[in-house]
Amino acid sequence: MFSRHKTTPETASPDQREPGAPPQMRVPTDQNGTRTASRLTFNRSPDEAVRESVVMAKLQDLIAWGRKNSLWPLNFGLSCCYVEMATSLTSVYDIARFGAEVVRGTPRESDVLVVSGTVFIKVAPIIKRLYEQMLEPRWVISMGSCSNSGGMYDVYSVVQGVDTFLPVDVYMPGCPPPPHAFMECLLLLQQKVGHERRPLSWWFGPQDVQAPIVPSMRDRKREERRKQTESRPIDRLPRTDLTWRDR
Amino acid sequence: MSKNVGLLTQSVTETEIVPIIDALRRRFGANLTPQSTRDEMPTVWVAKDQIREVLRYLKAEIEKPYRMLYDISAIDERVHQARRDQPASDFTVFYRLLSTDRNADLRVKVPLIGNEPSIPTITDLWPNANWYERELWDMFGIRVDGHPHLRRILMPPTWIGHPLRKEHPARATEMGPFQLPEDKQEAEQAALEFQPEDWGMARSRENEDFLFLNLGPAHTGTHGILRLVCQLDGEEIIDIVPDIGYHHRAAEKMAERQTWHTFIPYTDRVDYLQGVLNELAYCSSVEKLAGIEVPDRVKVIRVMMSELFRLASHLVWYGTFAQDVGALSPVFYMFTDREKIFSIVEAICGGRMHPEWFRIGGVAQDLPDGWDKLVRQFLDDFPPRLNEYDKLVMQNPIFKSRTVGIGAYTLEDALDWGVTGPGLRACGLAWDLRKKRPYSGYEQFEFDVPTAANGDCYDRAVVRVEEMRQSLRIIEQCWKNMPSGPYKALHPLSTPPLKERTMHDIETLITHFLSVSWGPVMPPGEAEVPIEASKGNNSYYVISNGNSSPYRVRIRTPSFPHIQMVPFIARGHLLSDVLAILGSVDFVLSDVDR
Fold it and tell me: What is the model's pLDDT at position B13?
């Protein structure tokens, strides 16, 4: 029952569906791809009716899906990156869309530690203490170059990367990464969390955490990036997606 | 040592002597040596045994006194070659004084000989000397005799060595890989434990025991990694011991191994909310050192970008301050406006928080076509929203009851503690360097310097909000009157040098190549141009050895003295008022610890 690598026939491969989502939760569509679920029809087969209103899932999948969509970050900031992280909570970016707006003041209620900024030697023991106070399962996003590797601060007071003393799940480049980069990394973490399988009990099933192997984004994005051969001329304004200008 | 001082006096011509130094020499003897600097700030060398008398005289006795201790730091002079007319010294401690009555600065330097020098304390003259002197000990190992609590301030208590000494490694990678095993973790945590006795604090008084409450380093109300240990009687604050240094990014040491040009990105991160304002402070000082006069267009572009960043910084303050005292929604409005500013900044500079856009002698590139449309849109869009925020925050009865009469200090206190910026103007003194000592063409702009009278949390807010309106006025004038012309000075030390001129002959090509690969070589000397940053007066004291990187850069930031003052303001208030006070002071931890 709890062997996770078996793929049921109605489930597509994890890449084709929403990661971590229970298989039958896809919205029913017709051949043209329009939604049919909202259309109330009385002459459908009982089979269809059941499929529209009943969710079947393995407990493990359901838990992973729940975890993935409610990642609560710890309200902890180090430097510049934290301002960008906080910006992603506000209206323009609105990280509540991804269920991660529930910023917790205590590590004991949080799922994600976002190491947002420079990791100083003086503050490293405190970061570690906070991480240890978080309950499992817990994840770490390393936000910004300083936290990834020390970045531009190869200097006596700075730890050269938070991964020297913490396990990191997602590395986010940038100095500081803009809020949408934070959101992208949050989605990457969600993918990872959604595919993770953890033991349901201490006395049955496999006891190890089965984490997916996550490909490097550099490799995944390489093809797309190589297509871009022209850079924007600097004497013209870039196109931006902020809507306020069009008002 | 005094013999050296005497010898050097003769080499200085009388024409260089400015009135204040003349007055000092008449009173304290001719062994006070003046030094000529490129910023023409009066600079005088005083022997260690005279320093306290000289400073006391300058603060209390002289007509139109130097009321404010603006900065104290030191220079490790042991490998400093370009010290032509200066007394022999291994470590030079300098005191920067400011007189608001005279509108004048003064730099007093003390030569110290030997590897373990010491200097008498001046904490009895200025209360804010306390932290600066602790920093002297921490960074340079200069013992301060008579200091009440001479212990490390920026580095961890377990640190070995004094980082700003030249023999201390600069790079983390020189110091071996960082490890945090269990025992080290325990030891570091134990070293951070607060012992009231170390600070001369009682654990109890007659009928009650005090509670010592740790606020931070991980606390949402401290706006970053700041630790405040509060001594509480019930909810009443008896005293606070701030513990800083969790955000010490070593910008000053970093400057010593960057070129003059490549240090610019590091300045952005000193006060990470005010972006180009940091660059302006640094570039102004370096330009003074190099003798570069920037074109008019550069001046106006710089003013416009600086004011946009002042707005952005004040918006963060506005939203988070309201949030600190319990209003949760304003921050969403203010950050939305900040995004609008960033969309302009991004269109012009390509970056958001850290645009790294000013250059020595100019800016990185010309304004893009259509910038005026963007700025116009913002100028139309923002003022009505600002008025709306008045109703949302400033006139809100809860906000008022949390801030009016809370955390008040007088003008005297403000000058004593080295407060500048809105915190000083809220006490009634219209001290704004943009008006008092116009730089970057601010004399061409019409704007007012808002002040308030009570110096409490609410008045500090009033001043900042009004300042935002004035910033808008300035941006409006930039929008109307943007001059044409080059965006970089045609000076050989401007960075990076203009490419067009390289293709004429091999000599200019070589100069260009060297200037791009090595960076410019600045003439020996020192300069400092204070500017009005978003949180107060900010300046970069740059010292050149005639090399491609600075010999020493001292960054005077406004947040450092402001945080030092928090215990003084908060005593007698309730614990909840501390958060209102912190919010109203408006600091950035990277600006405190650098």
Answer: 41
According to the model, what pLDDT value does residue B6 have?
Answer: 37
Q: Is the ipTM of this complex over 0.90?
A: no
- Rg of chain B taking only CA atoms, in angstroms: 24
* CA dist B348 → B133, B341, B343, B355, B368 (Å): 42, 11, 9, 9, 6
Residue A214 in this model has a pLDDT that exceeds 90: no
**Position B553, amino acid:** V
Which pLDDT belongs to residue B37? 85
What percent of chain A is modeled with pLDDT above 90?
28
pLDDT tens, position by position, A88-131? 998 888 888 888 888 888 899 999 999 998 999 999 999 999 99
At residue B15, the pLDDT reads 43
The verdict on a CB contact (< 8 Å) between A176 and B339 is no
Q: Confirm or reject contact between A241 and chain B (CB < 8 A).
A: no
Tell me the whole-structure pTM to 2 decimals.
0.86
**Min distance A219 CA to chain B CA atoms (Å):** 25
Nearest residue, CB atoms, A176 vs list B172, B353, B365: B353
pLDDT > 80? residue A4: no
> Residue A49 belongs to what H/E stretch?
helix A46-53
DSSP calls for B148-160: TT---SSS-TT--
* Chain B contact set for A118 (CB, 8 A): 247, 249
Q: Do A155 and B172 touch (CB under 8 A)?
A: yes
Model confidence over A58-93: pLDDT tens digits? 888 888 888 888 899 998 888 889 999 999 998 888
Of B114, B128, B88, B67, the closest CA to residue B3 belongs to B88
Q: Which is nearest to B370 in space by CA: B343, B337, B388, B347? A: B347
Q: Angle B296-324/B575-585 helices, nearest 10 degrees?
A: 170
Task: Give B76-82's long-range contacts (Cβ < 8 A, gap of 24+).
Answer: B76/B140, B76/B164, B76/B165, B76/B166, B76/B552, B78/B166, B79/B166, B80/B543, B80/B545, B80/B551, B81/B545, B81/B546, B82/B524, B82/B525, B82/B544, B82/B545, B82/B546, B82/B551
DSSP characters over A128-197: HHHHHHSPSS-EEEEESHHHHH-TT--STTB-S-GGGTS--SEEE-SSSPPHHHHHHHHHHHHHHHHH-B
Interchain contact, A237 vs B245, CB within 8 Å = no
The percent of residues above 90 in pLDDT, for chain B, comes to 49
**Which tens digits make up the pLDDT trace of B313-325?**
999 999 999 988 8
Which of A14, A54, A23, A22 lies closest to A37, judged by CA?
A54
Alpha helices in B242-364 (DSSP H): 251-255, 264-268, 276-290, 296-324, 330-349
Q: Which residue in the block uniquely carries the two structure tokens 């190589």?
A: A226
Q: Which residues pair with B3 in a beta bridge?
A: none
The size of the A-B interface in CB pairs under 8 A is 163
**The predicted structure's pLDDT at residue A36:** 55
Low-confidence ranges of chain B (pLDDT < 70): 1-17
Asked whether the predicted pLDDT for residue A3 surpasses 50, the reply is no
The reply to whether residue A87 touches residue B338, judged by beta carbons under 8 angstroms, is yes
HEC string for B58-87? HHHHCCCCCCEEEEEEEEECCCCCCCCCCC
Q: Do B171 and A156 touch (CB under 8 A)?
A: yes
Q: Which amino acid is at B560?
A: F
Contact status, residue B215 vs residue B227, Cβ threshold 8 Å:
yes
Q: At B82, phi and psi to the nearest 5? A: -85, 70
